[in-house]
Amino acid sequence: FMVNKMQSLRSLNKWSEAFEVCLECLKVLEFPLDLGSMTDEEIVDYTTTVLQPKLPTSSSEIHNLKNLPVITNRKVLLTQMVMMEMNLFSVFLGKSCLCPLSNMVNVISFMEHGQSIYCSLSMIIVASLEAAIDAKGLKRAREYCKLAFTVLNFYSIEANELFTIAFRWYCALIGSIIEPPEKINQSFDLSIINSKTQIMETIFTKSIIIRFKFQIWVYQGIPIKTITERMAILLAMYKPTDDYLKFYEIISRIALDILRVLNKEISFEDYLGLDEKLGIKAVQVGHSYSTHKVIACYILKKFELGAEIALKNLVPRQYDQITNIELPWGRFAF
After folding, report:
1. Which of 102, 173, 180, 319 is in the most buried spot, having the most CB atoms within 10 Å?
2. What CA–CA distance (Å, rounded) separates 34 from 123?
């Protein structure tokens, strides 16, 4: 009942109330941490010192997890469901520290209790974190992704919906590094067309689509004029209601103004000052803006400046909420 109540409040955009119910759920489920009383710094410290060392250190260890039995403990399954919901709370409440914690908790739960479809999305997100470390991390990331989709190979409506969500995140995260951009672009479009899940209707998800498509088109070397035309169609297609229109316009402007720089409509210096002009305050929007500055530097061959921005604004925030290929791009582009 409490999980349903949490999801209902979330669908009404009552995020703070939904989060309070989420915390109550965790208490009932006897989750060992009181996240409501912990500071962000304490959550990050727990994630890095307690959870991260428990993760597999080799790709073979991850590969062997496919041999685990399917979990049957209902209490553990409910805890994993709630942890999966944390990804949305981390965005809408600006608590970026919840994302790595909740997903690492799910991966460790998978290791300890057995296979569960509710851990598939967490594996994709943890894979994106692993890929941003080094070459060995990228190998572990590949195995996490394979395992995530192996686990979702069940014939149930719930598994199918979770597959769609996990695949979308795969396309937008580690998949963009592992596979050719053309294949990822086509697969991403197909997953969006076929998706009927509620998560695809949020402003957060719509902004993911815009950023992802823009970056993949740039990466493919598509002409500026073509990208501009495609972006216009995309923006009109996903335009939200008035309640979120301002947020959506800022997200759109961050991407579109790179094209204006390339068309010499505005200077690159003007683009670097866009945050003050638009009044960017939200953590996630600021993080996205930093990423687009890195992308702009990459396009304009200002590699030293791009590396400086990536190191200053992206790398130290490796536990920030990851909305697409931002962190891996920031790490590998230079």
Report:
1. 173
2. 24
Q: Where are the alpha helices (DSSP H) in 67-134?
A: 74-92, 98-113, 120-131
Residues in the chain: 334
Joined tokens for residue 322: 């990851």
102 vs 157: CA distance, rounded Å: 24
- The residue with tokens 């297609």 is 237
Token pair in block for residue 315: 């790398």
pLDDT in tens, 85-132: 887 787 677 787 888 899 999 999 999 999 998 898 889 888 888 876
Write out the two tokens for 192: 């969006």
Mean pLDDT score of the chain: 77
**How far is residue 118's CA from residue 162's CA, in Å, rounded to a whole number?**
8
Whole-structure pTM value: 0.64
329: CB partners within 8 A, 6+ apart:
176, 215, 291, 294, 295
Residue type, 261: V
- Tens digit of each residue's pLDDT (9 = 90 or more) over 166-223: 776 676 666 666 667 677 677 666 665 555 444 445 555 666 677 777 777 876 778 8
Q: What one-character-per-residue DSSP string does 7-58 give?
A: HHHHHTT-HHHHHHHHHHHHHHTT-S--TTTS-HHHHHHHIIIIIGGGS-SS
**Token pair listed for 201:** 């209707």
Is residue 115 classed as helix, strand or coil in its secondary structure?
strand
Report the run of H or E that residue 146 belongs to, with start and end: helix 135-151
Q: 10 Å Cβ neighbour count for 40?
A: 13
φ/ψ (deg, to 5) at 115:
-70, 140
Q: How far apart are CA 119 and CA 139, in angstroms?
A: 19
Tell me which residue of 92, 324, 129 sits closest to 213, measured CA to CA: 324
Residue 16 corresponds to which amino acid? Answer: S
